[in-house]
Amino acid sequence: MTPPGASSAEGGVRLTIWGAGGSAPTGRADRARFGGDTVCFEIRREAPGAPPLIVDLGSAARDLGRRLKTEALDSGRPCEAEILLSHLHLDHIMGAPFFAPFYDPASRIRIRCGLSPDPEFARDTLMAFAGPPIFPIQPIHMSEPAWDVFRPAEPFEAAGFQVTPVRLNHPGGCCGFRIETGEGAICVIGDHEHGDAEIDAGVAEAVEGAAVMLYDAAYDDADYERHRGWGHSTWSVGGALAERCGVGLTLFHHHPPELDDATLDAREAAARAVHPLARLARQGMRLRLSGGRAEIL
């Protein structure tokens, strides 16, 4: 077994953006290139049978779950996955009722959330959402996942990676993650509103020297002025943070559903003109990390 955070002899690490949207999914034709599903990220070593580390179960978790179910059937092994929930707002859990591994009693799944020291809090919330009267059956109950909690700044192991949670500024609470892969750190920062000096300092410390940072940039500067207190940040703040902290590649995510591809193209062009190492995350985007560097495939 590869120690947490150590490099795997099998190769690099893959990061897949299954969904990059925020607030609500959208299936409009003018959002086809950036994608309309809400946040769901998968991190996995390039090694046979390596389990995925999944961050959030937005609407894109449906497609990820179907892929994991197919892999399990093809390999003849039960589906194994570790899931980190940044928080329990609807756009980050709405894929849970449709996540195929939950329907298989043989699946081996652990779900972690840091909003309460009581693991029953996340369990009860998620199962109430993915069950009657909101949903006709209780798929999560079928797989009987393990439930666990985490605390900001206290590292733990998940799917063979060392994960350190970081407190974010969002209504109701939220956690980001620094994930040490042995091939470079991946930092997931969202949902987060800049402006709290103590929390911002913790975020800066967490992303220092990361190979990849996924940053909540729901707004540009003009949008932000109309949405102060809503719990989201801007690409200008995220880009400046990345440059101060030596981040290799920044991917902005949590695209609002009302924005179309043309608007997001313009936003990306504006961001890259100031921060050349930044991109907007796209649904289906895949990255490979190796030797501390990230490559978009």
UniProtKB/TrEMBL annotation:
Transmembrane segments: none annotated. Coiled coil: none annotated. Pfam families: Lactamase_B_2. Residues 83-255 form the Metallo-beta-lactamase domain. InterPro entries: Metallo-B-lactamas (IPR001279), RibonucZ/Hydroxyglut_hydro (IPR036866). Gene3D superfamilies: Ribonuclease Z/Hydroxyacylglutathione hydrolase-like. This is Phosphoribosyl 1,2-cyclic phosphodiesterase. It comes from Albimonas pacifica.
